[in-house]
């Protein structure tokens, strides 16, 4: 439950940890100051109590008996000091057992004697009560009561203000330091995401701390190596395609001119076209991602691809589209992906194809559904790998290379999306092209009805 509120970015996590550390350090600092201030204040209060006791006793002894009551009233009114005789029936409550009052009692007894008694309240009257004899020879003792506020300590608010200001300044500096450290990591993360989509990002600046600079240099070298390997692969396959298509063209011409039997000529031409289509699929799979993304009417694109397939092949194809927003995509690549999905459904799905498209939860779902034999659930993910086929689950069509779904998966990842395959309710296969309407990615549940995202 609490994990939802835990920060996910390194910047916020590090800043939060540093802020907590600073707050704890300032709290410990304030606590230490308060604790170290207790002992001097307790000794000061003890010295004050001793002075008040001695002065009060001296004043009472020196004053005429008829003036003593007036003197006691003056002490009570002006200084808050009250004198009471100790009675046997007094209800005495001890002072709180705290380090402050322990130091106070020790300092006071060191001056007035160990027989001095202390109380926090006498007869339910709170205060700081200290016993003393008026004359050393008399057994009668008196209580001297000081106001309890003399033991209170008001925390200096200006310290709190300066402490908060220091904490805010430290947190600001911590934010600047952490953001400076994580900025190169954020750029590296964005570049790594681009490489994962098959793109070739601009080189990352190789500056900052030596560890970050070396990391950026290593990543730049890796990105350049991948770019070079991708270019070399495309160049090699393009050369192979050119070398193969030239003799294929001669074979097609030779078959048209030399083979008299119409059926045999059509069979040879069909084999040549199949070989040419296989070469084309290899090129589609190896083709680079140099096409620029541009705003596109997705609904119009889907209808255009569906109409093109309907004209070229004899199949029953139904299209149901919701109102779709324009999306910035690589138009040719997305056309290739939709064509592959529809061709896959046409070849293996028995001829009845349904295409739906809708937007839900920030994603665009394009579903291509057929009513063929379907695919076992344990084989769904495997069939998205290159050169993988599963003829036992579908029809016995054997003119493919196993690259169709792999090409769709690559194009979906290029757009930050994914390809999902799942059994269709009632029989058949549902192939979902899941494209985010923004740069965010999320896994999407599968269902026969694209509008019901809670079903699988």
Topology:
Layout: H1 10-62, H2 68-79, E1 82-85, E2 92-93, H3 99-112, E3 118-122, E4 125-133, E5 141-146, H4 157-196, H5 210-258, H6 262-286, E6 294-296, H7 298-312, E7 316-321, E8 327-329, H8 331-348, E9 352-360, E10 363-370, H9 404-414, E11 418-423, E12 429-436
Parallel strand pairs: 7-9
Antiparallel strand pairs: 1-5, 2-3, 3-4, 4-5, 6-8, 9-10, 10-12, 11-12
Protein name: histidine kinase
Keywords: ATP-binding, Cell inner membrane, Cell membrane, Kinase, Membrane, Nucleotide-binding, Phosphoprotein, Transferase, Transmembrane, Transmembrane helix, Two-component regulatory system
Organism: Dentiradicibacter hellwigii
Report on this structure.
There is one protein chain. This protein has about 450 residues and is an alpha+beta fold. It has 3 domains: about 1-150, Sensor histidine kinase RisS, periplasmic domain (Beta-Lactamase, 2-Layer Sandwich), CATH 3.30.450.300; about 180-290, Signal transduction histidine kinase, dimerisation/phosphotransfer (DHp) domain (Helix Hairpins, Orthogonal Bundle); about 290-435, Histidine kinase-like ATPase, C-terminal domain (Heat Shock Protein 90). The protein contains 9 helices and 12 strands. The protein has helices at about 10-60, 70-80, 100-110, 155-195, 210-260, 260-285, 300-310, 330-350, 405-415, and strands at about 80-85, 90-95, 120, 125-135, 140-145, 295, 315-320, 325-330, 350-360, 365-370, 420-425, 430-435. A 5-stranded antiparallel β-sheet has the order 1-5-4-3-2. Strand 11 (about 420-425) and strand 12 (about 430-435) form a beta hairpin. Helix 1 (about 10-60) runs antiparallel to helix 4, helix 4 (about 155-195) packs parallel to helix 5 and helix 5 packs antiparallel against helix 6 (about 260-285).
